[in-house]
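no rush on this but wanted to send it before i forget. what follows is a protein written twice so to speak, once as letters and once as structure tokens for the fold. mainly i need to know what kind of three dimensional shape the backbone takes. thanks a lot i owe you, the record is right below.
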Amino acid sequence: MKYLPILSKNKRPRSYQHLTLQWMSLLAVFLFLSSFFMNPNVSAHALSASFTQIEFNPSETKMTFSLDVLSVIESMGGDTDNNGVLNEKELEALHRRLEEWIDDCVIVEMNQKQQEGNLESLTLGKKGDKDVVTWTFHFPAFTHGQTISLNDGLYTQSTGGTNYVNLITSKHGSEVSQAVLQGKNRTWTILLTEQQVQQQADPTGNGGQSTPTSPSSTAPKAPGASLEESPSPSQPASQSTDTNSGRFSFFFLGMHHILTGYDHLLFLFALLLRKQTFKQYAAIISAFTVAHSITLTLAVLGWVSLPSRLVESVIALSICYVAVENIFRKDVRYRWILTFIFGLIHGLGFATVLQEMELPKSNLAFSLISFNVGIEVVQLLLVLLLFPLLKMLHQVHFSRQSVTYGSIAISLLGGFWLIERLFM
């Protein structure tokens, strides 16, 4: 007589539990992929960026604020011919609304008191390959002992989050400091010191030893922004407060850039979707890292330059190609070679935001490394998250069909981006 094992109500067969994990992994991968279609920012341009330049002069303070044209159109309309750009006539029709918009959202304060600036001009221009609208304001001259703040309230009321960043450059005498406002960190603050004012009044340096202004911000400032030379005994020491370490400014910008760079993320996901060994996965990630690091560096240094429309279109094409390869190609053992080639183009895409910021050479190396490390950290975390899920997915008996259907969805989205970037 044979006896069948009795299963406790609290215990299930191991095979059943394993199957449950496989289904959960399939669901997780499906949700990850569907997020690209459900996110409203996916159909819009990749990054909404503004560029603020503040010049502290003995007679006045000048501020220019530039915002990409696509962001202006999405927020204020005005593109009457629906060609995705603004002309002078369309800008003139929007002039009053644009002036009030930035007056309300971008606020300059002195010792926590709002300052009224005079709008000198509102113009169309270029920032690299990006079309921008530029507001030019003039404020009274500020003196030592005063705390100057810039509060950026653009898109803070957005219900679905925002990919907006404000890249700030502050010029005072021969010193240049930079900061990045993003996410919830929207205030930049600088305390003017007596030495900084003396330097402005005597740019030759004969009146006193040069001391850079020390910015402080609730958003991180660029490395090197608060470097100080030892003051001479006859001069007061530079004073500053620092509420958030500037050493992580471009690190967080790199993280933000890839997290809102949905095309880069989808390309990486498409590369990993096919069943491969851990060694093959490692080779793919290494190739992508090395390749985009090379062109990111060369582009920021100004040694390599391609039109942004071409770069963004090839990035979309790379997504389509890898997705189609997932469907039709049986052997993907040497995918790292393909990854390296396309990674060179993705690096040019990563470099765009730093090129537009026009980093000073004194901060370039540290800023570039920090930005790249931020990208790599997100990339590594994504791989560590996906690897176990994909491993379980590939153990499901219909895993091949799942990869095929997933790749079809990826190719459709990549194709949409390709058409959008080539013709819209």
